[in-house]
Amino acid sequence: MSSTINFAIDLGTTNSLIAKANNGSVDIFKNPSGMKVTLPSVVAFRKDRILIGDKAREYVEKDPANVFAAFKRKMGTGESFFIPNNGSFKTPIELSTIVLQELKNFIFTGETPASVVITIPASFDTVQSNATKEAGYAAGFREVLLLQEPIAASLAFANKEGKAGMEGQWLVYDLGGGTFDVALVVIDDDEMKVIDHEGDNFFGGVDFDNGIITQLFIPYLEGRFNISDLSSKMLSANGRYNKLYYQLIYKAEEAKIGLSSHTSVDIEFDFTDEAGETHEVYFSITRDQFEGIIRERIAASISFIRNLLSRNNLQPSAISEVVLVGGSTYIPLVRTLLTQELGIKVNTSIDPTTAVVEGAAWYAGGRPGKAEPAPAAQQSASTPSGSNVPNATAIEVKTAYQANSRDLEEYLAATIKNAPAGSNYRITRSDGGFDSGLKPAAEKISEMLLLLPNSLNIFSLKLFDKQGFPLQVSIPEIMIVQGKFSIYGQPLPHDICLEVDDTDNNTTHLELIFERNAILPIKKSITKTLSRTIVKGSDDQLLINVLEGSRYASPSSNLPIGIVSITGRQLKTDLVKGSDIDLTFEISESRDITVTAYISMIDEEFKQAFSPSSRSVNITRLQQETDYLHRVGKRQLEKLLKQEKYEEGAALQQALKELEVIQEKLRNLSTDDVTDTKYQLDDQKRRLAQVIDSTEKDDQLLELKEEYYDKRESLRYLIEKTGDKNMLQRYEHMKAEENTWINSCSTQYLRLKISEMDRLSWDIRKKDISYVTSIYMYYSMKPDDAYSNLSEIRLLKKRGDEALTRRNPDEILSIVYRMYDLLIDKNQGDETMKGTGLSR
Amino acid sequence: MPQHLWIKMANLVFELEKKLSTSQPSTGIVRNIDRMKTVLEEAGLLLLNPLGEPYNEARTDLEASITGEATGKLHVLDVIKPIVYTQQEGSRSLLQKGVVIVGNK
Predict the structure, then answer these.
(1) Which of B57, B74, B79, B97 is most worth mutating to test chain A (most A CB atoms within 10 A of its CB)?
(2) A558 pLDDT exceeds 70?
(3) In a domain, A380, yes or no
(4) Mean of the per-residue pLDDT values for chain A?
(5) Which of A562, A584, A615 is the last residue of a domain?
(6) Which of A765, A786, A801 finishes a domain?
(7) B84-100: per-residue pLDDT in tens?
(8) For residue A711, pLDDT beyond 80
(9) Which of A194, A537, A562, A834 could cross-link with A546 by S-S, CB 3.0 to 4.6 Å?
């Protein structure tokens, strides 16, 4: 059990937040649905459910009788709200309790805090304060400490700046979405106190949004499209432009936010005129225009401050600073006017939207908690009216639903036995996209669950007693697969890969397209780059070779299941090395494979479908592979013989002989041969590839693994040296993946991984000025005649020497890259592989 | 690239696609948009356009403004921002609610 309270809640008029102090830092919890930190303090009683937060707010205007917002203003009054939808009454305390309970659902750590700090406005009297406490107890907290909002905000600022507290007396200027408060705070006898405060419950950021609509958008649209009284047509629920009103609210808010960091913003929206024609409207708003709209309101807020100061016989010079709280204080004019008009330093060092809850959490982190957390199952019994709750373990819940669905919603039926009277249930989808809200738990319940297409949808059903406490019932998760799993669908038995060139290592390797066990049908698009130029009219070809097998194996030992060849003869113009090619792969439920290649450079599409019953073997490619295997095998044989490994050598020699037979047969086979010879030869080739692979593999694998581990170690050292967190994350990810392939991969795959390590190292080193300088020096020291263009290389060396003085790695590298291009002898290998023409 | 920038990019791709949907864009443009969407997918983002879908209050993947009388069945009439989920290692979570206008069709 924690010895300090730690948990804090900003129970706001418009929005509420929850946070926790955590060993010297504060974590603000996010709404699991939508990941926002704020929960609108709104509760809606719809016909069959209770909605809280964002969903409730949507109905504020449409169903005002059943939706309750800003009830905080009524705390401590005897007022009750009648709910027409269920005929009952709710007090502001009960509504606040619902919001507090909802905030508890934000705590993803599974903790159920017994104690909490809740913030209250400086204006709250004793009755209102006690009403807030009561709401806290009713929400299940056993200890509730109250803290005034300006004090909480001040604590956040004080903590940020590392001071034990603020100095002298200061103002807390809190301008939120719909309310404005200013408080005068002082430290007196080591105690932080609010001396006085002022406020306006109907002034905030929403007024600024409306100002943009009424003073900028509407006059512009009326003038340009000759419309009269657009305002009424927008605001009337049945008005022609009611939809436009909601679009413009959003656009106005977007403009307001943009103008906090830019001097002008461009807003665009579609507008349909009265003749029914749609126009694209581009609207520029400058900060000056915006400030013209809001200046008067901000000035009015400063008058509040003047009143506050004169009432307390204070000059602005007696105030040490103004700390800003509330999202609307991001507006530069607020900051400027406060400084200009009052001459007081403005403190903006804390995120104004979370300052109150953050400060409250700091406070909670330093206050000892006195209440013991009650076990969750007993929590409801701890509340004053919950003493008759039956044993929750006796509750029985059974669910029935279709585990696979083709529809976008699925019917769930459930029976709930022995639930206490007044209980509610709630069903949520784990990804945050569905929430049934709180609904009465009857013996038989049903719900239409919304499903996200082509995926596994996981729902949880929870029960709550009438006070809103969770009932401890074990209900299995509801798992429904939409779309993918059907009686026709099936998982892929092997990886499906694309063969791509590895020009660095003069070989090809496999790139994963679809992972083993992926569910059919499936589709994926990727973009590749051409690794060599295919000349128009030539016999050279670009090969899109789709193979089935392990992604870690070598391409030649996998089963070719589809190949698209694009030869120079099919082309209207040359395909230049480096140009992009879009590849789309589709596999249907019945395993038909369609490959579509689109080359944007020539705006041409090549499409081919392959059926599982007819295998695709490209004779030219088969020849290339056989030649390559023969070369590799021969090299390996020489090595084995030198090492006097005659036994392994004999097997390899036999394989090479068989390969030569295949080579011979292929030479005599026409490219359009219709017999099944090519399939037989391909099978034989794959078998021989495995023999050659394994002898090569055993020998080289150890060497390559050593190289891999060495590079991995030096990469780790480099990353530690730079302290780059992103790089460290990438490195850790690669390391974690290692176990899945290290003991079963091909040499090609291992080479690929080594290249990945090299690339990561390069990403780090290219930022290191001394390393980059050394590379430049290497190329610069070479004689001019080592390069193909004498005048350019001289110029580059001159520019490079100058760049060294500026110590900019990027600039130096750009010169190095060009020098490398001009280098005549790049020490390339003499045996160049033909490959597929696709680079990785 | 930080996630909020990916989301910004996703919103721009969505807006571009929305603007082009009113005309007949060239296949090249459509392809480029598809490529952008593929890149977003590779970055772990799933973009959904709920235009025309039925709306009800259980849809926490949408932030709706309700236009008109809002009686009877509601549908998504306009999408200002798409729904964005993040997908990582088999788990999915809502990153951005779709900002929509709903009403009677």
Answers:
(1) B57
(2) yes
(3) no
(4) 85
(5) A615
(6) A765
(7) 999 876 678 898 999 99
(8) yes
(9) A562
- Residue A667 and residue A774 in one domain: no
Cα–Cα separations (whole angstroms), residue A668 to A350, A664, A673, A679, A689 = 79, 7, 10, 15, 21
Considering only residues A25 and A614, tell me which one the structure prediction assigns the higher pLDDT: A25
Q: Are A27 and A64 members of one domain?
A: yes
Distance in Å, alpha carbon of B58 to nearest chain A alpha carbon = 5
Q: Is there a contact between A237 and B69 if contact means CB atoms under 8 Å apart?
A: yes
Q: Which two tokens mark A458? A: 């996981």
Nearest CA in chain A to B85: A431
Give the tokens for residue A540: 């050279």
Q: Does B89 touch chain A (CB under 8 A)?
A: no
Query: Is there a contact between A54 and B97 if contact means CB atoms under 8 Å apart?
Result: yes
Mean pLDDT of B47-62: 93
Indicate whether A291 and A338 sit together in one domain: yes
Q: Minimal Cα–Cα distance from B50 to chain A, Å?
A: 11
CB contact under 8 A, B92 and A431: yes
pLDDT in tens, A330-379: 999 999 999 999 999 999 889 999 999 999 999 999 999 888 765 544 44
Within A227-367, strands assigned E span 264-272, 278-286, 319-325, 346-347
Residue range A424-481, pLDDT digits in tens: 999 999 999 999 999 999 999 999 999 988 788 999 999 998 888 888 888 999 998 8
Contacts of B51 in chain A (CB under 8 A): none
In a domain, A385, yes or no: no
| CATH code: domain of residue A362 | 3.30.420.40
Distance, CA of A119 to CA of A375 (rounded, Å)? 26
Q: CB–CB of B57 and A46 under 8 A?
A: yes
Number of domain units in chain A: 6
Q: Which residues lie closer than 8 Å to A395 by C-beta, 6 or more apart?
A: A416, A417, A418, A419, A463, A471, A473
Whether A535 and A564 share a structural domain: yes
Do A7 and A367 meet the contact criterion of CB atoms below 8 Å apart?
no
Q: Which residues of B touch A436 (CB under 8 A)?
A: 58
Q: Are residues A780 and A705 in the same domain?
A: no
Average pLDDT, chain B: 88
Q: Do B78 and A243 touch (CB under 8 A)?
A: yes
Nearest to A433 among B34, B61, B77 (CB): B61
Q: Do A33 and B60 touch (CB under 8 A)?
A: yes
pTM score of the predicted model:
0.67
Residues A409 and A521 in one domain: no
Contact of A598 with A537, CB cutoff 8 Å? no
In a domain, A382, yes or no: no
pLDDT digit string (tens) for A528-548?
888 888 888 888 888 888 888
How close does chain A come to B5, measured CA to CA in Å?
A: 15
SS3 A402: coil
Which residue type, as a one-letter code, is found at position A469?
Answer: F
Which residues on chain A are in Cβ contact (under 8 Å) with B57? 44, 46, 49, 51, 55, 58-59, 437
Residues A668, A533 within the same domain: no
Distance from CA of A295 to the nearest CA of B (A): 29
Helical (H) or strand (E) element with A231: helix A230-235
For residue A625, what are the domain limits?
617-765
User: What counts of helices (H) and strands (E) characterise chain A?
Assistant: 20, 35
ipTM of the complex: 0.88
- Look at residues A494, A682, A520, A674 and name the one whose alpha carbon lies nearest to residue A593: A520
Please tell me whether residues A110 and A19 are part of one structural domain.
yes
Nearest CB to B60: which of A247, A433, A455? A433
**Residue A433 maps to a domain:** yes
CATH number at residue A539: 2.60.34.10
Residue A250 with chain B: CB contacts under 8 Å: 65, 80, 99
- B86 to chain A: closest CA residue: A431
Interface contact A433-B96, CB threshold 8 A:
no
